[in-house]
Amino acid sequence: MDFHWKYGFLFLFLAAVTSGCREASLCQIEEEKLVALLSDIHVAEAGLTKISGREKDSIAQALYAQVFAIHQVSQTTLDSCLAILKKNPIEMERIYNKVVKNLENRKEDEEAGIRNEHKR
């Protein structure tokens, strides 16, 4: 899967965020947890790009439910947090820069793991 497509999902996800509260400090998700959660959501979305039809919706629901369960955060809480961040674009950009860096690090780690597997 082309890693640049993930950046496209990042942009689309940012554009789709709905309106909300006033201050970034009202977000109920700690920053590190938010970065990890958003990273996992983007990985899930990237995985869904190769799937179509009815099964895509059911797989998407299962994936999102799993991501939210792993991070112990509800969709509503994430939506509220993203709405708050939308009102503070500088903070949103800072958070998403961390998400992008996290995804880049994951890709590098995955590639290093694959290279190590081939050396064995």
Task: Provide keyphrases for this structure.
globular, 78% helix, single chain, 120 residues, mainly alpha
Write a structural description.
With 120 residues, the protein is an all-alpha fold. The chain has one domain. It contains 5 helices and no strands. The two termini are 25 Å apart.
What's the arrangement of secondary structure elements?
Blueprint: H1 3-16, H2 31-48, H3 54-71, H4 75-86, H5 89-119
Helix pairs in contact: 1-2, 2-3, 2-5
Tell me the strand percentage band: under 5%
pLDDT below 50 for ≥5 consecutive residues: which ranges? 18-24
Structural class: mainly alpha
**Structure summary, number of beta strands:** 0
Q: Measured on Cα atoms, how large is the radius of gyration?
A: 15 Å
Cα distance, first to last residue?
25 Å
Domain module count: 1
Helicity, as a percent range? over 70%
- Biggest beta sheet summary: none
Instruction: State the helix count.
Output: 5
Mean pLDDT: 83
What's the helix-strand series? HHHHH
> Globular, elongated, flat, extended or rod-shaped: what is the shape?
globular
In summary, what is this structure?
With 120 residues, this protein is an all-alpha fold. The protein has one domain (3-119).
